[in-house]
Design brief:
This is Alpha/beta hydrolase family protein. This protein is an alpha+beta fold. It is 31% helix and 23% strand. It has a four-stranded mixed sheet with strand order 1-2-4-3.
Length: 116
Amino acid sequence: MKTIIRNLAMLSGAFLMGISLHAQDKPVEAANPPANFKHATVKVNNVDIHYVIGGKGEPLVLIHGFGQNWYMWNRLLPELSKHFTFIAPDLRGVGESGKPDSGYDKKTMASDILNS
């Protein structure tokens, strides 16, 4: 009985996670930052790197996780912008950044951000 309940719980969790992931998906044109933030792009290592920037103070670069983009920080932008110049890039291959055929190793993606 415990095995059945555990399996049902895992299936329910996976089902709900799938729903929540789809509910968070937004078309690129709908992913707008709050007021006083703007989209920008810089060419680094022959790839266009998109980022959102705004706020005032010391720079704070926040890198999204796997399967995410800059938008994961969207709700934090207003508060962080009171203390920092917030910079949220899309890593190569994600969001509005370029999608080259190669360069998806951590060292190259770190170089993209460091040289931006």
